[in-house]
Amino acid sequence: MIPIRSIAKHLIRSKFKIVLNSYRTTHSHGTKQACNKPYTTLMEPACKVAVITGGTEGIGFATAHQLLCCKAKHVALLDQDIPKGFEAVNHLNCSHGKNKATFIKCDVSNKEAVDDTFLKLKNEFETVDIIVNAAGLWDETKWQQELQTNLVGTINVNLAVQQCFESSNAVVINLAGLSGLQPSSCSPINSAEYAGIVRLSQSLGHQANFKRKGVRVVALCVGLTSTNFIKDVHLRMLTAEMGKELQEEMKTALCQKAEAGARAVLELVRRAKTGSVWVVEGSRLLHVEMADWRKSFTLESQFT
């Protein structure tokens, strides 16, 4: 998805706590500790049914390939581009076996279409185990359409999963960008959308909701990735100045292949706790613990 600057610099500045491939965090007032304890596997992709929005290219398609390499039972790709969808499915079926993948035309910004699609999936497969929200648009000149796709689309899919697959032990991986953790001055709409996705994932993934619905929800903020998603994106910012700023920032940002994002998704399927937030940048997977504002504030006034 979208990286803006070096994540390490930003997270340190923002007092986030980072752990590479670990659940144990380093507190600003404590001693750094390494965590070598093996993680608990919560789900293996083998024999599981997966749904990927935006699954016809980029990280979504790479994730479909990785899941099938791990013996997933079936992968359904949701997107709007029909020719590209059939091309993607044909490639996956040729590589992994007949009827391992299907394409479903679906506009995630349309709630009725999403609800109808997931109802059909439930009728066909009874349950869906893995849901990856990878559909995305980065064009701030069309910010309303971008908002509907990135944020509203993610909400629509999450609510459909909560309704259709309650108590199914499913896992939802919501893809966002680094601007969801550190706002970008050159991409304000994107920053708002991705911050919303992070908080949506934390809220729906809260233990209280997990106990009610039995669905794990996780956020993955993806750094600069070599896909069509970022092609000429500097020309699609709100102003020319913002575009130039973004272009300069991208020159020094860590870059990765789509496969790195896909491998990160598989790691989260296997072990990410519900409500957790993760980053994959420069092919590194990092667990992020969001700072509690109650532990970091300055009292300015006391009103009576």
Keywords:
9-stranded mixed beta sheet, 16% strand, alpha/beta, Rossmann fold, 304 residues, disordered N terminus
Blueprint (SSEs and pairs):
Blueprint: H1 7-13, E1 17-20, E2 49-53, H2 58-69, E3 74-79, H3 82-96, E4 101-105, H4 111-125, E5 130-133, H5 143-164, E6 171-177, H6 188-204, H7 207-213, E7 216-222, H8 240-252, H9 258-271, E8 277-281, E9 284-289
Parallel strand pairs: 2-3, 2-5, 3-4, 5-6, 6-7, 7-8
Antiparallel strand pairs: 1-9, 8-9
Helix pairs in contact: 2-9, 4-5, 5-6
GO molecular function: oxidoreductase activity, acting on the CH-OH group of donors, NAD or NADP as acceptor
Family: Belongs to the short-chain dehydrogenases/reductases (SDR) family.
Keywords: Oxidoreductase
Structure write-up:
InterPro entries: NAD(P)-bd_dom_sf, SDR_fam. One of its GO terms (cellular component) is cytoplasm. This protein is an alpha/beta fold and 304 residues long. It has a single domain, classed as 3-Layer(aba) Sandwich (Rossmann fold). The chain has nine helices and nine strands. It has helices at 7-13, 58-69, 82-96, 111-125, 143-164, 188-204, 207-213, 240-252, 258-271; strands at 17-20, 49-53, 74-79, 101-105, 130-133, 171-177, 216-222, 277-281, 284-289. It has a nine-stranded mixed sheet, sandwiched between helices. Helix 3 (82-96) links the parallel strand 3 (74-79) and strand 4. Helix 2 (58-69) crosses helix 9 (258-271), helix 4 packs parallel to helix 5 (143-164) and helix 5 packs parallel to helix 6 (188-204). The longest helix has 22 residues, at 143-164. It is globular and about 60 Å long. The model is unreliable at 1-34 (pLDDT under 50).
